[in-house]
From TrEMBL:
<comment type="pathway">
    <text>Polyol metabolism; glycerol degradation via glycerol kinase pathway; sn-glycerol 3-phosphate from glycerol: step 1/1.</text>
</comment>
<dbReference type="Pfam" id="PF00370">
    <property type="entry name" value="FGGY_N"/>
</dbReference>
<feature type="binding site">
    <location>
        <position position="12"/>
    </location>
    <ligand>
        <name>ADP</name>
    </ligand>
</feature>
<feature type="binding site">
    <location>
        <position position="409"/>
    </location>
    <ligand>
        <name>ATP</name>
    </ligand>
</feature>
<feature type="binding site">
    <location>
        <position position="13"/>
    </location>
    <ligand>
        <name>ATP</name>
    </ligand>
</feature>
<dbReference type="GO" id="GO:0019563">
    <property type="term" value="P:glycerol catabolic process"/>
</dbReference>
<feature type="binding site">
    <location>
        <position position="308"/>
    </location>
    <ligand>
        <name>ATP</name>
    </ligand>
</feature>
<dbReference type="GO" id="GO:0005829">
    <property type="term" value="C:cytosol"/>
</dbReference>
<feature type="binding site">
    <location>
        <position position="14"/>
    </location>
    <ligand>
        <name>ATP</name>
    </ligand>
</feature>
<dbReference type="InterPro" id="IPR018484">
    <property type="entry name" value="FGGY_N"/>
</dbReference>
<feature type="domain" description="Carbohydrate kinase FGGY N-terminal">
    <location>
        <begin position="4"/>
        <end position="250"/>
    </location>
</feature>
<feature type="binding site">
    <location>
        <position position="413"/>
    </location>
    <ligand>
        <name>ADP</name>
    </ligand>
</feature>
<feature type="binding site">
    <location>
        <position position="83"/>
    </location>
    <ligand>
        <name>sn-glycerol 3-phosphate</name>
    </ligand>
</feature>
<dbReference type="GO" id="GO:0005524">
    <property type="term" value="F:ATP binding"/>
</dbReference>
<feature type="binding site">
    <location>
        <position position="265"/>
    </location>
    <ligand>
        <name>ATP</name>
    </ligand>
</feature>
<dbReference type="InterPro" id="IPR018483">
    <property type="entry name" value="Carb_kinase_FGGY_CS"/>
</dbReference>
<feature type="binding site">
    <location>
        <position position="308"/>
    </location>
    <ligand>
        <name>ADP</name>
    </ligand>
</feature>
Length: 496
C-alpha cells in the first residue's frame, strides 16, 4: 500500500502541495506564489495557466522534497480558493479570459440591481448566499458578456465553466474530467443547496448555459486519475473541497456546533450545523460543508474579506514592517491602541455587514498616534471583525460559542490570539498542525481510497498546540463601542 497522500492547496496568493503520512503529519511542503493582476481599482484577476503551472510544479517538487516517487502517493486531495471563476474552451483548453478572483468587485453594481429587483430572498433561500459580487455567478456572466464571441460559444456547448478545483482537475486528467464537488458548487450562486442541483431559474437569470457546468460530485470519491506523464504515475484524485470547508474538516469540526476560524488573507468562520441547511437570519451564509457518501453536512459561514491581508498592507503599502511576523513586536510596544481603530474595508465589508461600497477607515487619530498604535489597531481589526461574525453565528445557532478552533498564517501571532480570546471570552484553540486546510482535503481523499477507514480513525490525530483563555475581569464594553463607531464611519463613505 502507498503510504502518503498529496494535498494540492490552491490559494489566493500561492499554490502549495503538501504530503501527509498516515498519522496526518506533514512530510514535505512546496509552495510558489503567483501573479496578482489588478487591471483597475476593485478588479482582481489570476492567470489560470500560471495557477496550473505553479500547482503542477509544486506537486512535482514536493514528491522530490519528501524523497518519494509518484508511486508512493496513494491519492490526491484538492482544496482551493473558492468562487474564483475560470471559463475555458473545451477544444483548445485555453481560458477565454483571466480567472476573476473572489475579491473582485466589478459586478457590484449589477448585484445592487438584482437586490433592488427584490431577488435577495429567493437567491438566499435557494443557494444559502447573500447577493454579492464575491460569488461566481456574476463573474461568469461578466465574462460571457464582455469577451467577444464567448456567449455564442458557450451556447454552442464549446466553453466550460469551473471554479479552481474544476480547472485543476480538467488539467490533471488531461481534459478528461469536468467535475466539481458540492462545497465549491455551493459558492457559485447558481447551485441549489436543498435539491443538490444546478438551479435552472438562476442559470436563466445570469444567462449561464447549463452545458458549461461541471458535474457535481461528493467531496470524497475517486473522480479520475492524473493523465499520462503529468506526475510520473497515474494517481487517483479522490478528495475535493473549497479551502474553508476543507479547513473545517481538517480541524475535525465533525460534530454539530463545532466552529473554526481561519486567519489567512481573509478570515472565514464556519460552524457545522449538521444535515439541515438552516438559512441565516443574521447575514451569514449557509454553505455545504462536505458530502461524504450520501451524507451532506451544512455550515454557517461568516466571510471576512480582509484578515491577515491588513498586515500585508502595513508591510507593502505603508512600509511599517518588513515582514508580516514583525507586526507582533511593533504592536507590543504599546499597551493599547489609545482609541485608534482600523476598519480594513479594502474590498467592501463581508459578513455580517455586507456592504460592497464601504471603504477602509482609520478613526481616533491624535497627535500622539504612532506606528505601534497603527500596528496594534490593524491586528485588533482582525479580532473585532471575527467578533462581529461570531455574535451573528451565536444568534443564528442560539448557542454560546465557548470554543473556537483557529488556523491560518496569522494564528502564529500570540498577541492577536490572546486579544481574540479576551474579546470573545471564548477559548481560542490553536492545533499543532495549522495546515488544516491541506489536511482536510488529504483526509477526504484518504477516506475515499480506504487509506483511512473512518472519521473516528483520524479524529485522534487533531492535537492542541495552545489554548488562549480570556484574562479574568476584562471589560470590553468601551472598546466594542469604539469599534462600532469605526464601522459606522467605514459605512458612511458608502452612503455618500
Ligand atoms: N505573525 C503574523 N501576524 C499577523 N499576520 C500574519 C503573521 N504571519 C502571517 N500573517 C498573515 O497571514 C496571511 C497568510 O496566511 P495564509 O494562511 O498563508 O493565507 P492564505 O492561505 O490566504 O494565502 C497573510 O495575510 C499574512 O499577512
Ligand atoms: O485562498 P484563501 O485561503 O485566502 O481563501 C479564499 C476563500 O476561499 C475565498 O472564499
Amino acid at each position: 500500500m502507498s503510504k502518503y497522500i498529496m494535498s494540492l492547496d490552491q490559494g489566493t496568493t500561492s499554490s502549495r502541495a503538501i504530503i501527509f503520512n498516515h498519522n496526518g503529519e506533514i512530510v514535505a511542503v512546496a509552495q510558489k506564489e503567483f501573479t496578482q493582476i489588478y487591471p483597475q481599482a476593485g478588479w482582481v484577476e489570476h492567470d489560470p495557466l500560471e495557477i496550473w503551472s505553479t500547482q503542477l510544479s509544486v506537486a512535482a517538487e514536493v514528491i522530490v522534497k519528501a524523497g518519494l516517487s509518484a508511486t508512493d502517493i496513494d491519492s490526491i486531495g484538492i482544496t482551493n480558493q473558492r468562487e474564483t471563476t475560470v471559463i475555458w474552451d473545451r477544444e483548445t483548453g485555453q481560458p477565454v479570459y483571466n480567472a476573476i478572483v473572489w475579491q473582485d468587485r466589478r459586478t457590484s453594481a449589477y448585484c445592487d440591481e438584482i437586490k433592488a429587483q427584490g431577488l435577495a430572498k429567493k437567491i438566499q433561500d435557494k443557494t444559502g448566499l447573500i447577493i454579492d459580487s464575491y460569488f461566481s455567478a456574476t463573474k461568469a456572466k461578466w465574462i460571457l458578456e464582455n469577451v467577444k464571441g464567448a456567449k455564442e460559444k458557450a451556447e454552442a456547448g464549446k466553453l466550460a465553466f469551473g471554479t479552481i478545483d474544476s480547472w485543476l482537475i480538467w488539467k490533471l486528467t488531461g481534459a478528461e474530467k469536468h467535475v466539481t464537488d458540492v462545497t465549491n458548487a455551493s459558492r457559485t450562486m447558481i447551485y441549489n443547496i436543498h435539491t443538490l442541483a444546478w438551479d435552472d431559474e438562476l442559470l436563466d437569470l445570469f444567462g449561464i448555459p447549463k452545458s458549461m457546468l461541471p458535474e457535481v460530485k461528493s467531496s470524497s470519491e475517486i473522480y479520475g486519475e492524473t493523465a499520462g506523464k503529468i506526475l510520473a504515475a497515474k494517481i487517483p484524485i479522490a478528495g475535493i473541497a473549497g479551502d474553508q470547508q476543507s479547513a473545517l474538516f481538517g480541524q475535525m469540526c465533525t460534530e454539530v456546533g463545532m466552529v473554526k476560524n481561519t486567519y489567512g488573507t481573509g478570515c472565514f468562520m464556519l460552524m457545522n450545523i449538521g444535515n439541515e441547511p438552516k438559512i441565516s437570519a443574521n447575514n451569514l451564509l449557509t454553505t455545504i460543508a462536505w458530502k461524504i457518501k450520501d451524507q451532506v453536512h451544512y455550515a454557517l459561514e461568516g466571510s471576512i474579506f480582509i484578515g491577515g491581508a491588513v498586515v500585508q498592507w502595513l508591510r507593502d503599502e505603508m512600509g511599517l514592517i518588513s515582514k508580516s511576523a514583525d507586526v507582533e513586536s511593533l504592536a507590543q510596544k504599546v499597551k493599547n491602541t489609545d482609541g485608534v481603530y482600523i476598519v480594513p474595508a479594502f474590498a467592501g465589508l463581508g459578513a455580517p455587514h455586507w456592504n460592497q461600497h464601504a471603504r477602509g477607515t482609520i478613526t481616533g487619530l491624535t497627535r500622539g498616534t504612532n506606528k505601534s498604535h497603527i500596528a496594534r489597531a490593524a491586528l485588533e481589526s482582525i479580532a473585532y471583525q471575527t467578533m462581529d461574525v461570531l455574535k451573528a453565528m451565536e444568534a443564528d445557532a442560539g448557542v454560546n460559542i465557548a470554543e473556537l478552533r483557529v488556523d491560518g498564517g496569522a494564528t502564529a501571532n500570540d498577541l492577536l490570539m490572546q486579544f481574540q480570546a479576551d474579546l470573545l471570552k471564548s477559548k481560542v484553540i490553536r492545533p499543532e498542525i495549522t495546515e488544516v486546510t491541506a489536511l482536510g482535503a488529504a483526509y477526504l481523499a484518504g477516506l475515499a481510497t480506504g487509506f483511512w477507514n473512518s472519521i473516528d480513525e483520524i479524529r485522534s490525530q487533531w492535537k492542541i498546540d495552545k489554548t488562549f483563555i480570556a484574562e479574568e475581569g476584562i471589560d470590553n464594553t468601551e472598546r466594542i463601542k469604539g469599534w462600532n463607531r469605526a464601522i459606522k464611519a467605514a459605512k458612511a463613505s458608502a452612503e455618500d
